[in-house]
Each structure stands twice: as C-alpha cells, then as structure tokens.
Specification:
alpha+beta; two-stranded antiparallel ribbon; 10 strands; binds cobalamin; binds iron/sulfur cluster
Length: about 425
C-alpha cells in the first residue's frame, strides 16, 4: 500500500446539486425516458465511484482482497493450466489470445497512468479536425452514424442523450496501488451517447464456466477497443468531439436501455431482442447533433418476475430471487435505484477460484438463443406473451442452454475446419 492521499468519494453528493442545468424540456424528456424504460430512481440516488466496484475493491478493500484474487490476476499474465476440461493449456492459450488486442490498448497508456478501456477512455487515433464538416439534417447524420458503426463492425447501435447520472463520480487510478480516486471529467459539453452492442459467440458461451468460454468475453473486449476507437476517429474527422469508452467512465447498462437496445433482467444484464443477454456494450460520447432513440419494453421484466433460472444456477448464489429493491447488498451497488442487484463480491470470489470469469447466468437465460433461426424468434415472441409460463416450462424441460463440455467445443471446431 502507498501512503498517498486518497480522494475520498463524496458518495455522489455532488448530484443533483451540480448537475448541468437542464431546461424544463430536457428534464421532461428525461422523466419520459425513465418512465418508458421503467427506471425507478429515488431522492436517495447517488452517483457511483468506480473505485467501489468489485474489480477495484480487489486492490484496496480487505473484504475482497485474497490470495485467490492475486492468483486470478496472475493467471491472466501467466496462465496456470490444470488437468480439468476447459482449463488446459489450449483453453488458456485461446483465452489470452482473445484478449490480446484489448490488453494492448489497456497497456499502451500505462506509462502515463492510464488503463484505456477499463479505467480511462481510449486515446483516439484521428485528432479532431479543425474545421467542422457541413452537416445534412440531423436524422440523416444519425443514419450515417448507424451505417458507419455497422460498417466498422458493431452488431447493434443505439443513440441516447448524455445523462450525468451514469457517469462515475471518479475513475480509479491505475498508478496508485490502492486505486485512489481521480477526476473523471472528460464529458463536459457532450450531448449524445452512441451505444454499440457486440455479440458474444454463442458456441463458446455455452461452455461457461471454463477458461475456454471466457474467450467469448475476451474477443468482444478486443472488438470493442477496435470498433469504438474507429467510430470516435470518424467523428473527430468530421470536426466534432468524441470520447471512446468501454468499461471505463460510465455505466453501460442504463445507457444501453435508454438507447432502446434492450431491457434489464434479473441476471444484471441488458436483454436484447437480437441476442438476448449474450452481448457486450461500448459507448462513444459526442457533441455531434444526433436524434435520440427511445427505450423499448418487450416483456423481459414480466418474464424475470416469473423466472429465477439465473439465480438458481449461480454457484455462489450472488443473484436475487425476490423483487427489485432500492438498496443492494453492499457498497458495490449504486444507491437509490430500484432494481435487481447482485452480491458482486460473491460473484467475483467465485471467478477468482475458477481463475477465469463466469457467465453461467448469461448462458442459462431462456433469452440466450440463436435468433437467426425462425423457431427461436417464435419462442421469444411467445415467451413475451400470455404463454410465458408454458414457454418457461418448455425451456426447463428441454434444457436448451445446458453446458457444452469444452472438449466437445474443440472437437466441433476441428470437425468444422475439416
Ligand atoms: C464491475 C463490473 C462487474 C463486476 C462487479 C460489479 C460491481 N457492482 O462491482 C462483476 C464481477 C460482478 C461483473 C460480472 C459480470 N459482468 Co460486468 N461489468 C462491470 C462493469 C465494468 C462496471 C459496472 C459497475 O460499475 N457496477 C457498479 C454498480 C453500479 O453496480 P450495481 O449497482 O450492482 O449495478 C449493476 C446493474 O444493476 C446495472 N445498473 C447500474 N445502474 C443501473 C441503473 C438502472 C436504472 C438499471 C436498470 C440498471 C443499472 O449495471 C451494474 C452492472 O454491474 C460493467 C461495464 C460498465 N461500465 O457498466 C460490466 C458489465 C455490466 N458486465 C457485463 C457482463 C456481461 C458481466 C458478466 C456476464 C461477466 C462476463 N463474463 O462477461 C458477469 C455477470 C455477473 C452479474 N450477473 O452481475 C456486461 C453486461 C452486458 C449486458 N448484456 O448487459 C458489462 C456492461 C460489460 C460490457 N462491456 O458489456 N461485472
Ligand atoms: S434467467 Fe430468467 S430471471 Fe434470469 S434474466 Fe433470464 S429470464 Fe430473467
Ligand atoms: S457470473 Fe457466475 S458467479 Fe457471477 S452472478 Fe453470474 S452465475 Fe453467478
């Protein structure tokens, strides 16, 4: 531990006192979006400091720190293969290969005290042009941005208004051993957020938990880094500001919901129509004028009220089985938002024992299907309607999302290439 001063969080007490002054129209638009999204946010709401998330607490909070945490992080740098299926040298080799682009981005700014994509926004290759491009009408600008994002590799694109509630009060500082707080002040003057969705490979997700399956996560972090920095470069080239982010800077989930990409589930994830929960998000903050999407609700909340499959399947029992609550299990949960909240310390402790991340709660969800198939689109539509109970029974009966053994994934991979 260093004895440097730690800028103690003000617990988000700067909100709403110093929030940007919103016009009555902007406030009404926000209230309407909250209603449509189903967000329930009370006067107890406080913005969240990134230092309090479990990954950062692992560096300063004795409640989270352990030998297993140290071994978990070491396994990322120097894998420690073991005999069990899914944890062999082949599995760790693919896991670390999948992460390599994201790690390269994360590592390149370390000398400057920056961990890009995780604690700090990405540095973008193309600087902001001095002269702004002539713009067509705003709806056309927005369509062009969607097309460019898809061209660059995004699987989903949504646009929403900048909302300071989801910006971390502070970032966590990589150059401090105890992850001290540091200012997170990149976003002044931003008006919109472009949220990008990145599909995770279904065949790999089916092999969770294993080091092999975790390659599905690593590959998307690598994709996110490449795609989100390219989109921000494009906007900079037009002469507008663009801040490219992955896990850093702000909460992804409320933004993805506000941008109309999906609904919140008991498993703590945004469930999309296109991929269910099997998707990750990155975000570009910008002052380019854009039309904002609206939240959509298609029945996920009602399904999660009737289902507890993710909570039953979670080995350390980190997920809630009851209704949404305003207060979460500990300091790693934002306060003042009525929602399903996980016990993140239990979740992360389980990962550290595996020496790889977990996503069982993503795999087992009945919404995790391959929607290129007609029968799965039909299943989803029925699950979202009056036949929900029957669909949940069928899902349990046929256990579509049972685990695939990692050795079978490798067998299929070599058969496919033959
Ligand atoms: C830290 C973190 C974790 C940590 C710790 C979380 C914590 N509370 O400390 C742990 C280890 C638990 C974790 C696990 C996983 N994570 Co995670 N995680 C994050 C990260 C980096 C930060 C979230 C955060 O700051 N949470 C702290 C506070 C706010 O947590 P909370 O109050 O419990 O709120 C949670 C939810 O309720 C929701 N939320 C927050 N505010 C609000 C407000 C409203 C109105 C609503 C409805 C929801 C909501 O988001 C929070 C997610 O932790 C985000 C990326 C990002 N910047 O958002 C990814 C992220 C949430 N994780 C993601 C995923 C997929 C996973 C895993 C499946 C692991 C994996 N292999 O990918 C598991 C799922 C575990 C689970 N069921 O919760 C995805 C979710 C994608 C999706 N489809 O929604 C994200 C967005 C990363 C990404 N790049 O896409 N994660
Ligand atoms: S498993 Fe069931 S309760 Fe959990 S997120 Fe999916 S539908 Fe909701
Ligand atoms: S990631 Fe694994 S341990 Fe964490 S909540 Fe999901 S099932 Fe539980």
């Amino acid at each position: 531990m260093t004895d440097e001063p730690i800028l103690e969080s003000d617990g988000g007490a700067d909100w709403p006192a110093n929030r940007p002054s919103l016009t009555p129209e902007e406030l009404e638009a926000r209230a309407a979006s909250d209603r449509q999204a189903g967000f329930v946010i009370s006067e107890n709401f406080r913005r969240f400091s990134q230092r309090d998330d479990v990954f950062n607490r692992a560096w300063w909070d004795p409640e989270v720190m352990s030998d297993d945490v140290a071994a978990f992080y070491a396994a990322h740098r120097k894998p420690d293969p073991r005999k069990g299926d899914g944890y062999t040298q082949w599995d760790f080799a693919l896991l670390n290969a999948s992460w390599s682009v994201a790690r390269d981005f994360a590592g390149r700014g370390m000398a400057k005290g920056r961990r890009e994509g995780f604690l700090d926004p990405f540095e973008v290759f193309v600087p902001q042009a001095e002269q702004q491009a002539e713009l067509p009408p705003v709806p056309e600008v927005t369509d062009r941005i969607r097309s460019v994002a898809a061209f660059l590799g995004a699987d989903l694109v949504g646009v929403t208004a900048y909302d300071e509630r989801w910006t971390y009060t502070h970032s966590a500082d990589i150059s401090s051993e105890s992850r001290a707080e540091k200012p997170n002040d990149w976003l002044d003057g931003m008006t919109s957020v472009i949220v990008l969705g990145h599909e995770m490979e279904r065949s790999l997700v089916q092999a969770y938990p294993s080091a092999l399956a975790a390659a599905a996560t690593g590959r998307e972090y690598s994709h996110e880094a490449a795609i989100v920095t390219s989109l921000a470069s494009f906007i900079n080239g037009l002469g507008f500001r663009a801040v490219a982010t992955s896990n850093d800077t702000a909460l992804a989930i409320p933004y993805a919901i506000q941008a109309g990409l999906g609904e919140y589930g008991r498993n703590q994830m945004v469930i999309t129509k296109e991929f269910g929960p099997r998707v990750r998000f990155s975000k570009v903050f910008t002052d380019l004028p854009l039309v904002h999407d609206k939240p959509t609700r298609f029945g996920v909340g009602e399904t999660c009220n009737a289902c507890t499959k993710c909570a039953e399947a979670c080995p350390p029992k980190a997920l809630p089985k009851g209704p949404p609550q305003e207060v979460g299990p500990d300091r790693s949960n934002v306060s003042g938002v009525t929602k399903w909240s996980a016990d993140c310390n239990k979740c992360f402790t389980y990962w550290t024992k595996l020496r790889a991340d977990c996503a069982i709660c993503m795999r087992v969800c009945p919404y995790n299907r391959d929607y290129s198939k007609w029968r799965n689109r039909r299943f989803r539509d029925l699950l979202n309607g009056p036949l929900r109970g029957l669909m949940l029974w069928l899902d349990a009966r046929f256990d579509i999302n049972r685990r695939v053994a990692p050795k079978d994934w490798w067998r299929t991979a070599s058969a496919d290439s033959g």
